[in-house]
Amino acid sequence: MEMEQQTTLAATLEDESAHAFDSTVARIWRVFWILLIVTLVEIALATVHYFTGMPPVLLRNVIFLSLTLVKAFYIVAEFMHLRHEVKNLILSIMIPLLLFIWFITAFLTDGNSWRVDRERRVTQTEQVSPAP
Amino acid sequence: MSTIASTQKVNWKGGVSPYNVSYGKLMMWFFLMSDAFTFGAFLISYGTTRLSASYWPDPNEVFDKAPFINAKLPLVFVSLMTFILIMSSVTMVLAVHAGHLRRRKEVAKWLSLTILGGILFLSCQAYEWTHLIEGGTTISHNMFGPIVDGHHTPGPAAFGAFFFTITGFHGGHVFSGVVINTIVLINVLKGTYDRRGHYEMVEKVGLYWHFVDLVWVFVFTCFYLL
């Protein structure tokens, strides 16, 4: 009787383990397909833009950056398992990364202003001193 | 709600990890966060320089070759590299998962495939670098400037400098990942983690490997798409 119970218990455990195995593996492959499809969409968009010039560069870049963030989310959340960690850990990792918002805004604005400034000066020089 | 609050209080009193992870995994997370800032600084300085330039080479014109194919194929080769790296990330998660179930042979199988993926990626990068360098692109010179009277002119020197620095730094990470994965694979085969009672080491190198994949996602966008 006891042995029978043990066998049943073992069988149940094995079932559960096999079940957990299947659902986790299925989730891993689901994330793989998401990453692959997003990458293919990016490449398709790049190719379409290369040959037709559509959509406009700004819109294209916004789409590229959004899709990049989608991929980053799935890698960090599922592959690196961060989504399933405790909230303390998630916050400790994610909050410092918010610095990137300032970092990107400040530096890209700076780079852009250098170009605008230089191009403005070039135009002015052309206006004040016409070619001999 | 109150249960959660009381559990958290207990967690911060010591004796257990308030993060519910081991010391090693937590330190890996903190290391990866610092590494994210390193790569972030590289990519943002690249973006700053690129935005400050009046002209920048079109990636579709620069990266348009694939081995064994004598035609213009923008992005095809680098897409293959991206696929290889995503695939190796998947095999790494499968290795970590097999480690949870303590299935030694499966861990060894998936880890070997991950290492193979890493080596393939590095080989692709070696081809790409060789192709670019043979075409005259270095950290101080390239011919991807605007076409004047049908002739190529020198492009912004920073293009090569940023490209080789950032993809090289990423490739260095892939290379060290391959080395560390190999060390862990040897330990798996020797049964070290069976004796230890857990496969946490596979999880830790797994975190590092996924991070390398994550960085590539951003490098791919910044250098090949934008």
From TrEMBL, chain A:
It is a multi-pass membrane protein. It comes from the Bacteria. The keyword ATP-binding does not apply. It is found in: Cell membrane. The chain crosses the membrane at residues 31-51, 57-77, 89-108. InterPro entries: Cyt_c_oxidase_su4_prok. This is Cytochrome C oxidase subunit IV. It comes from Thermoflavifilum thermophilum. One of its GO terms (cellular component) is plasma membrane. Keywords: Cell membrane, Membrane, Transmembrane, Transmembrane helix.
From TrEMBL, chain B:
Keywords: Cell membrane, Membrane, Transmembrane, Transmembrane helix. Residues 1-226 form the Heme-copper oxidase subunit III family profile domain. It is a multi-pass membrane protein. PROSITE patterns: COX3. InterPro entries: Cyt_c/ubiquinol_Oxase_su3, Cyt_c_oxidase-like_su3, Cyt_c_oxidase_su3-like_sf, Cyt_c_oxidase_su3_a-hlx. It is found in: Cell membrane. The chain crosses the membrane at residues 26-46, 75-98, 110-129, 161-186, 207-225. GO terms for molecular function: cytochrome-c oxidase activity. Belongs to the cytochrome c oxidase subunit 3 family. This is Cytochrome c oxidase subunit 3. It comes from Thermoflavifilum thermophilum.
